[in-house]
């Protein structure tokens, strides 16, 4: 990023700031860079980054990022780029812009300002009388139509409120500078510097921010099918919202439809418990969506009144869509947590898909193969007729296209046949170089027929087979085959059950729930540990902050990209998992 530096002598670091407030003379010099306006502020003696940002009403961390600063220290004469923040205009020559207060509705505004509902809806087509409007949303009211006396009273009230809020903020800032004269507010607008920390006996990631009290409202929407879970001799329902449910206790009859989502819920509760120990106050609201859009629609009104900071779920496309379409505030992130097939939900601007789709996965695989296959011999093995072609088969075409674009040699194609003879395979291998083999299938039967045969050549040739994360579920293929073939696959989640992190997580899970954690619980834990600190730090800017972030959780990788041609976000954070020839499993994040 371009930095603007004034050439002058470095006179030293800024002096310590005491309780006395420093008067900052705001710059009038502006520039426009990539369509955005910035002030150019020249640092003077005794000015701090904190006092400068306070004067301009901007975030310390936003200014640090804009100016490529890693530390808070400033130099006299240094020129900072400061974003121009336009003040909110509550009135212009046509409209009064009213910010919605708690429990206000379009109907109550109509009564209060003596303006017809039909006119409000005409000027605000994005709203609907059948749906609650989120607190803080702006409604336009035509000046010619509203009661002027009511408007003047409302503007006076807003002015008093703004003054009180500014006074409270100024007092808080002064107290901070008194306590920390040569430091600045902690990084709350960035996910850089994620680190592992221990709380109790669990390791997890948290942003490098101070541990003051924070409050985050979370709506968890899962198909728990509460009504299907009864005591055998009673109509009593299982209290699924307690930490004490023992799913191994035979007196409970746990529905098979409930079990995977209860495991997800367990992972959420473990993360909430860990974050509470860090000073977060988490208000968790759990909704049983079942798998019924009508059930979900009946919950939307309550959800809009709640106005959560984060929504996890629903988990099925049809129930997710029912919520997303009726949600009043489209800046609230809605996580699609378990499926990689968001369908047309990807069009919603607050859609966040946690799993990488197969289409995106093969694109990432193709990029890696071409980048690492310049000196290798590439072979494409076409599975036999018993393996149904799916999105995985796109890998071959993507690699071929990228090879042509980069002027590289084409691949050698080999159609697999039943009882394939080793001599046929030897002819397509090259000695002295790495033979990178694409085998684009997730069909276990096809893999069990092909991979053991290929492994018989591992002593004569250097072979690397590119696989898919679904192969981790195969039970008919010995791990020794994967090691011999130096199998490499990409996945956005991996649990090393022999590692310290997984062992400590499992121990804590057993202590809470008397059961071993599933992969679903691991992923739910990582998701909450990532999103709640981010939502707390970014609030209404969370969706923008998610773009291009690269984060490793305890078990999951996150790197969110806009879906192709659509508004939603998809996780394309991946690990490269390698069953190497030394019989070791190496897991490395793929950094872009």
TrEMBL record:
GO terms for molecular function: lytic endotransglycosylase activity. CDD domains: LysM, PBP1_ABC_transporter_LIVBP-like. Residues 1-19 form the signal peptide. Residues 47-63 form the HTH cro/C1-type domain. Gene3D superfamilies: 3.40.50.2300, LysM domain. Residues 39-82, 96-141 form the LysM domain. SUPFAM superfamilies: LysM domain (SSF54106), Periplasmic binding protein-like I (SSF53822). Keywords: Signal. InterPro entries: Cro/C1-type_HTH, Leu-bd, LysM, LysM_dom_sf, Peripla_BP_I. Pfam families: LysM, Peripla_BP_6. Belongs to the leucine-binding protein family. This is LysM peptidoglycan-binding domain-containing protein. It comes from Butyricimonas faecalis.
């Amino acid at each position: 990023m371009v930095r603007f530096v004034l050439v002058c002598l470095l006179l030293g670091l800024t002096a310590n700031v005491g309780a006395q407030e420093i008067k900052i003379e705001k710059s009038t010099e502006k520039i426009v860079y990539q369509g955005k306006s910035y002030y150019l502020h020249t640092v003077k003696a005794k000015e701090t980054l904190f006092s400068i940002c306070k004067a301009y009403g901007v975030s310390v961390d936003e200014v640090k990022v804009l100016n490529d600063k890693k530390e808070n220290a400033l130099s006299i004469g240094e020129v900072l780029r400061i974003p121009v923040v336009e003040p909110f205009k509550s009135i212009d020559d046509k409209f009064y812009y009213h910010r919605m207060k708690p429990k206000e509705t379009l109907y109550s505004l109509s009564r209060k300002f003596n303006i017809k509902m039909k006119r409000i809806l005409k000027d605000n087509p994005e709203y609907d009388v059948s749906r609650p409007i989120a607190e803080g949303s702006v409604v336009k009211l035509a000046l010619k139509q509203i009661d002027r006396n009511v408007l003047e009273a409302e503007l006076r009230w807003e002015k008093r409120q703004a003054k009180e809020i500014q006074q409270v903020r100024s007092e808080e800032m002064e107290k901070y500078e008194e306590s920390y004269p040569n430091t600045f507010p902690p990084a709350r607008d960035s996910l850089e510097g994620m680190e592992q920390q221990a709380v109790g006996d669990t390791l997890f990631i948290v942003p490098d921010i101070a541990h003051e009290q924070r409050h985050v409202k979370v709506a968890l929407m899962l198909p728990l099918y509460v009504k299907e879970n009864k005591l055998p001799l009673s109509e009593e329902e299982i209290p699924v919202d307690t930490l004490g449910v023992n799913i191994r206790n035979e007196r409970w009859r746990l529905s098979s439809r409930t079990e995977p989502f209860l495991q997800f819920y367990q992972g959420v509760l473990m993360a909430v418990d860990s974050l509470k120990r860090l000073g977060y106050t988490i208000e968790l609201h759990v909704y049983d969506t079942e798998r019924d859009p009508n059930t979900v629609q009946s919950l939307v009104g309550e959800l809009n009144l709640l106005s959560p900071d984060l929504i996890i779920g629903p988990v099925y496309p049809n129930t997710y869509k029912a919520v997303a379409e009726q949600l009043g505030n489209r800046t609230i992130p809605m996580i699609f947590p378990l499926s990689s097939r968001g369908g047309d939900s990807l069009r919603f601007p607050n859609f966040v898909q946690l799993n990488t789709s197969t289409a995106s996965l093969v694109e990432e695989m193709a990029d890696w193969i071409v980048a690492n296959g310049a000196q290798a011999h590439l072979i494409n093995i076409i599975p036999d007729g018993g393996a149904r072609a799916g999105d995985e088969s796109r890998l071959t075409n993507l690699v071929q296209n990228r090879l042509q674009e980069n002027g590289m040699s084409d691949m050698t194609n080999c159609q697999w046949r039943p009882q394939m003879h080793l001599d046929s395979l030897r002819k397509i291998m090259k000695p002295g170089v790495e033979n990178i083999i694409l085998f684009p299938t997730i069909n276990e039967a096809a893999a069990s027929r092909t991979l053991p045969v290929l492994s018989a050549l591992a002593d004569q040739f250097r072979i690397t087979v590119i696989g898919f994360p679904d192969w981790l579920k195969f039970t008919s293929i010995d791990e020794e085959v994967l090691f011999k073939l130096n199998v490499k696959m990409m996945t956005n989640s991996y649990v090393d059950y022999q590692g310290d992190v997984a062992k400590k997580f499992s121990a804590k899970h057993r202590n809470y729930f008397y059961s071993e954690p599933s992969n679903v619980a691991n992923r739910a834990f990582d998701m909450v540990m990532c999103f709640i600190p981010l939502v707390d730090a970014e609030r209404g800017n969370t969706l923008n902050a998610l773009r291009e972030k690269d984060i490793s959780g305890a078990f999951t990788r996150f790197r969110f990209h806009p879906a192709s041609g659509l508004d939603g976000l998809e996780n394309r954070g991946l690990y490269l998992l390698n069953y190497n020839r030394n019989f070791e499993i190496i897991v490395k994040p793929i950094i872009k």
